Every structure is written in structure tokens, then in C-alpha cells.
């Protein structure tokens, strides 16, 4: 068992020595500066002068830890959140469950200087309400800040069926549609910053390996396939928390690819990818919540669960590496194959159209509610 655990840990640390981590800051070797022996790759180089938007910091330990690492590397981090106090407490590591090792330790004068240069800003944004996403985007753009990257990390995980105030199934609304809307509204800022700085802009969708467990749909053939159940998105018909979660995470993978294709045609220097933090304890517990599931989850936790330090490796790499292949699905800091539906361009095109329709419907609903 110990050998299996060590092997799993080594696979994450192997990011350090792989070609995928050649440089996280210009002109330096990431394996030497950011992913040294005995570390798990959570350093990000010198990010002074950069600005990142991060969602989910008040609810997600991974989002909060990523925000903390970005801030401690000198970046301005804008937390799009509902509860500013909760977001700050989690990013600062005051909540206990959101604290990774060495979260507050600055071992060198350079590290202390970087941390002092960083800033944490909270701005109101409720990812369950499309109208507040629009408001957040307007207020952010009005500040005329540069925008180097967006980490779409807000998520709800395997909950029972419910609808948001906009009438959209909660997993699909929070995990996908909110980020579809937010990224669209901030894209002009990302494009402008990339053009001015000469660096690639970055959009990272925090997805999951559980995108393989989306709904089974019959698509005019006798054999069922996994995909997105557009006809029943907002219905409890055949609802499964695991499938609803998997469907929303599949949407992240598909949208990263679709958006990358559109940006490539425009010539914009913005890269969009989907990144999995690996299997986390919350995902495992909820996916095995049936009677007897704990008998399966207990040994799996010992050999398969990523620690918080390990979980932030891939999203931070995707946000800060000088260049990455666009539209890809990252696991352990390298592009890997997504599920078969996650590589279906027709499904990706349908998802884009469907998402636009839902966003437009939400805008109409908000306008009617304000009359």
C-alpha cells in the first residue's frame, strides 16, 4: 500500500522533470525554480504586474489555494465571490480546510518581496445568478486593470436536483454556464492585455476526471452514448447527482476547445484549457455515497486522493506557464485525451448554441424582473 501511495505522489511530482514544465517564468527552468525536489509544484514564479480573476474562493479549497499562491507570487488576484470575508479567510488559510503546507511561509527575501507585492481584491459575483455575473464584469472592466488570466473554479459537487434563481439546474448553471458567461464578458480584456504584454492570456476551467460519467443519451442510434442531455437539462427526469456533475464538467472540456477554436481564427493570443486537479476527497465521498460505498472509498483515499498541494499543481501550471497548447485537457501538467464526447466537435458546437440560448433567456428574465 505504501508503495502504491508513493507511486501516485511521484506521478504528480514528475511534473517537475517533464518537458511540460519547461518554464513558468521567462528564461528559467521550472523544475529548478518552481518544482524542486521534495516539492509539489505549487510555486508560480514572479507574477508581479499580473492580474487574475478567480471564482469559487469562498467555497473551494482548491480555488482558495490557487488564489493564495498567485497572490504570494506578486499578482493581483480578484476573487469573484458572494461572501468577501469567507473568501479572504480561505485564501489566507484561516479556515483550516483551505490551508496547504507552507501557505504563509516566505523563506527568502525574494519570496517575502513577492508576497508583499501581491494583492487580494474581492468583488461581488454570485455564480448562481447571471445578472450578477454581468454586473461583476462591468465593474471589473470599469477599473481598467490588465487581465492576464481567469481561473474558473467555482463548482457545486453532486448535489440533489435543484434549480437556480434563473431556473437552470444547479450543476450546469454553476459549473458551466456561469463561466461561459463570465469568460465571454471578460474576453476583450484578456485579448487586450495579451496584445499589450506580449504574453499569452489564459483561461483555465477547473474540470474533473468525472467528466467521463456524463449522462447516457440515445442519439438516434440503437447504442447509447455518453454526452449532454440537452432535452432534460432543467428537469429532474432521470436525474443523477453523479451524472449531472459529470455532464457539467464535460461542458468545461468542450467549451475550452470551442473557445480556443474561435480565438485561433481571430488571431488572439489567449489560450483556453480544461484542467483537472485529480481526484479529491469530496468527489470520491460523494460519488460513492451509496450504502457500502465507504468500504470502497476508504482504501481508495489512501492511494488515489490528491492532497491540496498536489491538486493545485495543474491549474497553476496552466495559468502561468509561458505557453501551452490551446483547447486541451490537462492532467498532471500534461495534455491528455478527454473522454470521447469531450472530443466531439458537433457536441461542442451544440453546447455553445445551447449555452448562448440559456444566457439570453436569463437576460430576458432579469430584465422582466427589474420592471
From TrEMBL:
<dbReference type="GO" id="GO:0016491">
    <property type="term" value="F:oxidoreductase activity"/>
</dbReference>
<dbReference type="Pfam" id="PF00106">
    <property type="entry name" value="adh_short"/>
</dbReference>
<protein>
    <submittedName>
        <fullName>Short-chain dehydrogenase/reductase SDR</fullName>
    </submittedName>
</protein>
<keyword id="KW-0560">Oxidoreductase</keyword>
<dbReference type="InterPro" id="IPR036291">
    <property type="entry name" value="NAD(P)-bd_dom_sf"/>
</dbReference>
<comment type="similarity">
    <text>Belongs to the short-chain dehydrogenases/reductases (SDR) family.</text>
</comment>
<dbReference type="InterPro" id="IPR002347">
    <property type="entry name" value="SDR_fam"/>
</dbReference>
